[in-house]
Amino acid sequence: MAHIKVISHEESEGRLREIYDDIVDKRGKLSEVLKIQSLNPESIVKHMDLYLHLLYGRSPLVRYKREMLAVIVSITNKCEYCTIHHSVALNHFWKDQAKIDTLIADRDSLDLSEADKALCDYAQALTDNPSAMDSEKHIERLRAAGLNDTAITDAALVIAYFNFANRMILGLGVSLTKEETEGYNYE
User: Fold this and answer.
1) Is the pLDDT score of 184 beyond 60?
2) DSSP letters of 110-160?
3) I want to staple 154 with a disulfide (CB 3.0 to 4.6 A). Which of 28, 59, 118, 161 is the partner?
4) Quick check: 64 and 93 in contact, CB under 8 A?
5) Res. 75: pLDDT tops 70
6) pTM for the whole thing?
């Protein structure tokens, strides 16, 4: 349950209604993480622009890797909303719920590529304690696993974005409903 006032789609009017309608037209539905920003409508637009660019924009970091990073950051932050939401998105690509469950519960036992292991470790370290991590060591490992500097930059951006989103969700009391995880366009 949100800890602040939230304007629903039905109650919205003016610019907020336009923004909500546009999101529903493009994404299929309106998420709770966007509705929590209803008191600052233009922040929703900027938020969506950043989200769509980082998750769906051109990148050498393929989509499933970006969703996997979202899940790892969200697990590390104990953000159930994004863990569940982006696990569903990741499963759109993996099509293996058991693999998703293992990623969440015990990722070290999962048979991931060296690049995916390095990305997951980087995401956890950058989320857990960024000032204590050896970023140079992580980046060397990512390069050794075949990622170029553009992919590494994109990974850092996705990780930073989900730390932002997780903190907003946790800090403002955004809750997840069953309906929240269904009906999105993941392509």
Assistant:
1) no
2) S---HHHHHHHHHHHHHHH-TTTS-HHHHHHHHHHTT--HHHHHHHHHHHH
3) 59
4) yes
5) yes
6) 0.93
